[in-house]
Amino acid sequence: ALSKRFSRDFVFGYATAAYQIEGAHDEDGRKPSIWDAFSRIPGRVRNGDTGDVACDHYHRMPEDVRLLRSLSADAYRFSIAWPRVIPDGRGPVNEKGIDFYDRLIDELLKAEIKPYATLYHWDLPIEQHGRGGWCARDTAYAFADYTDVVMARLGDRLSGIMTLNEPWCSGHLSYLIGEHAPGERNLTAALAAIHTLNLAHGLAMQAIKARRADLPAGIVYNAKALYSASERPEDIAATERYRAFHDGVFMDPVFLGHYPADVVEAFGPIMPKIEADDLKIISTPIDFLGLNFYAPERIAADPALPFPRARSVQAENVPRSAMGWEIHAPALDRLLTDLDARYELPPIYIAENGCAQYDELVDGKCDDPGRIDYLEKHLTVLADARDKGIRVDGYFVWSLMDNFEWSHGYAKRFGVVYVDYETQKRIPKSSAVWYRDLIAGRAQAASV
Ligand code: FCB
After folding, report:
1. Selected catalytic residue, list 22, 166, 240, 376
2. CA 198 to CA 405: how far, in whole Å?
3. Contact call for residues 173 and 122 (beta carbons, < 8 A)
4. Nearest Cα to Cα of residue 131 among 173, 172, 89, 169
5. How many helices (H) and strands (E) does the chain have?
6. Is 408 one of the annotated binding-site residues?
7. What is the pLDDT of residue 448?
8. For the chain, which end, N or C, has fewer CB atoms within 10 Å of the first or last residue's CB respectively?
9. CA-CA distances (angstroms) from residue 321 to 89, 294, 377, 412, 414?
10. How far apart are CA 262 and CA 276, in angstroms?
11. b/e string for 171-202 if b means 16 or more Cβ within 10 A?
């Protein structure tokens, strides 16, 4: 059985993010983030949804930790809201804000669940956005200061810490494609944001290590599983350019200590200024690599577009999730194998994997066989990759519960637990029971 292919030292967990579940947007000293502002702009988020209430996790935290325990969690990946801890981005620490995470961590430890904290899952304090946000180097230094505050107060009890979640979303998706806060479409701004994000990560790594050298620390990427749309050499070359522009700009500086040459060449005059020590800071060794995986992308050459002169194309007649994303589990192997060939990788955690389905409550129950099928296929590919010798030490399902799915609002459900937003009742779907049983049924000894 699938469960026997994982041993008890493999970490199985559930993932969430602050803005997507907490609510209590103006309580206990929290101030707005870019997502509070963005979600209020008409037309930016489906249905005008915001994270004001979300899953009300801020008030239901002990109940949610009990839920995690009842679902056999080894670990829980949550994010810390910068606008709760240092509401203005820089300046005074909000004791009540950090106290929430202090209590969360203690509850988790009491429940024998390992806490993994993400420092930034997209909720930049609005005041820091006013100081230039991710386009300004100041934000990297402010992030390092915030990291130090978190480490001083919470670092002793964490099992792992992640600096940034999916910097591609904070760079490309937020500043170039304009779908995420702050919703800009400006290549120069995006390039500046990419460099600040990299620098923020490196400075945060140093801040973490200065407080607690033994705490496993890393970053989480949504590195892309790419297929060339055809065997034509143009498409194959376009796929490599696409990879450099979307993944290489983050991973090359961290793992290789430089930016991809073709990106630097393409954007020379509009590249941000890189100061003397930046690349040294950015390439501070990480202890683990977090990867979020959902779907593959298929890439074709398009000479009419600016660099990377490539576009994503949709495969026809393939299964898709409720997001419209292609479901193709072998792509997870492709991702792991490609990265393994490209870089000297530390141990990997799958920090998110899951899918949106058209979930409905029927007689108080939610049956989601499509999600079980998705998870089972991806975990099988993962077990195979481990057998081949790729070191993956853990897996977090996205998500513990349905939540605010960014520009899609509450319309898309990713949880293994159903949330009835009217009553805030949590109802484990059949996938939660399946995943719980998988975790509980693991082999005792280390798998061979
Ligand atoms: C990832 C995000 C996460 C969630 C999933 C579906 O890109 O990290 O917050 O929205 O996608």
Report:
1. 166
2. 25
3. no
4. 89
5. 16, 13
6. no
7. 46
8. C
9. 37, 10, 14, 10, 10
10. 21
11. bbbbbbebebbbbbeeeebbbbbbbbbbbbbb
Q: CB neighbours of 139 closer than 8 A, spacing ≥ 6? A: 89, 124, 128, 131, 132, 133, 196, 200
Write out the two tokens for 430. Answer: 């059949």
Q: What's the gap in Å between 231 CA and the centre of ligand 1?
A: 31
Residue 352 known to be catalytic: yes
Instruction: Name the residue with the closest Cα to ligand 1, atom 4.
Output: 405
Contact 101, 149 (CB under 8 A): no
Whether 398 lines ligand 1, by a CB cut-off of 6 Å, is yes
Is the predicted pLDDT of residue 327 greater than 90, yes or no? Answer: yes
Both ends of the chain: CA-CA distance in Å? 15
Model pTM above 0.90: yes
**Gap between the Cα atoms of 245 and 300, Å rounded:** 14
Instruction: For residue 294, say whether it is annotated as part of any ligand binding site.
Output: yes
Residue nearest to atom 9 of ligand 1 (CA): 17
Per-residue confidence (pLDDT) for residue 446, from 0 to 100: 52
CA 194 to CA 309: how far, in whole Å? 19
247 CA → ligand 1 middle, Å: 17
pLDDT over 90 percentage in the chain: 99
Residue 387 neighbours by CB distance under 10 Å = 11
- pLDDT at res. 85: 99
For this structure, is 166 an active site residue?
yes
Residue with tokens 């000479």: 303
**The two structure tokens encoding residue 269:** 């005059």
Residue of 107, 127, 297, 352 marked active site: 352
**Cα-to-centroid distance, 334 and ligand 1 (Å):** 20
How would DSSP label each residue in 27-65? Answer: STT---BHHHHHHTSTTTSGGG--SSSTT-HHHHHHHHH
Ligand 1 contacts CB of residue 403 (under 6 A): no
Q: What is the pLDDT of residues 36-52, one digit of tens each?
A: 999 999 999 999 999 99
